[in-house]
Amino acid sequence: xxxxxxxxxxxxxxxxxxxxxxxxxxxxxxxxxxxxxxxxxxxxxxxxxxxxxxxxxxxxxxxxxxxxxxxxxxxxxxxxxxxxxxxxxxxxxxxxxxxxxxxxxxxxxxxxxxxxxxxxxxxxxxxxxxxxxxxxxxxxxxxxxxxxxxxxxxxxxxxxxxxxxxxxxxxxxxxxxxxxxxxxxxxxxxxxxxxxxxxxxxxxxxxxxxxxxxxxxxxxxxxxxxxxxxxxxxxxxxxxxxxxxxxxxxxxxxxxxxxxxxxxxxxxxxxxxxxxxxxxxxxxxxxxxxxxxxxxxxxxxxxxxxxxxxxxxxxxxxxxxxxxxxxxxxxxxxxxxxxxxxxxxxx
Length: 347
Ligand code: ADP
What we know:
Elements: E1 2-8, E2 13-21, E3 24-33, H1 43-54, E4 60-65, E5 76-77, H2 80-88, H3 97-110, E6 116-120, H4 130-133, H5 139-145, H6 154-168, E7 176-182, E8 186-192, E9 195-199, H7 222-230, H8 234-243, H9 246-251, H10 257-263, H11 268-292, E10 297-301, H12 302-307, H13 309-316, E11 325-328, H14 333-345
């Protein structure tokens, strides 16, 4: 089955093409259409461009959708009800769900005879225990506004946990795993017997680990304090916490790990940024070991997790118990999306 996977952002669409059969997975092609809104007028033209490139022999399409709210616990065949639900969750993911919808709607028009499948970043976390996803704020805000931890990067954590089970030669449902996705965005997930039981990203991707440009965990009282001191509004503070904080904010140099590692010995702020980054991950690993009563393997993925054995070693130093494996596994969210699309489309 030839499967096209589409991953849409506000100004770009990434695609990958696979040939999936029972017992065989073949990668065929990939590409990126950038500068939508400038070089290419809209998502509509971008989809036309991609379909012209990959040819008409597509049997199914898998779409990455960031937010499935509290509704989707797994990937689903897209119909009008699913479209409506993704629209409803725009409120929770104003930057991410709209471009996915544009892409889904246009590609469903052009490839109307093939199944389209939505694979949600949040679905892996749907069944976390209440105590992990509830915030200790008045209950009514959960009821009125669905404020809870949703978690993101779920497709990546699911992919590497499956792969880790193969490497460890044990069934996933007998393993306690901690998966660290360390890219520009960073998140960490506790996976017990194949199910995510806690994760570091929250109501939005801002919570949790120190990231390239996001602060991760901090005292929310800093927000009004900064508003007053800097004479800025709440949107400006949120912009600072999302785009000007994290490794970039503390180092005052860059969010690029390669450059930070080079400068670490010469620059105090760079050293501090890396120390906070590593310390925060260590704390989460320790807490996830505590809630799972141990851990069989800690897995590292994403641009930082896949390429920096030195950083991985520093994170794990002193934390890892005797029988815990440490694995570095390249993620492949698109392959996971293609697998789900295959399973749903073949039935
Ligand atoms: P995104 O979250 O945007 O997909 P990536 O997963 O590509 O990001 O990760 C980006 C981070 O990975 C950057 O900090 C980058 O410096 C780091 N990175 C990528 N390749 C390497 C490498 N070969 N060695 C060290 N760090 C790398």
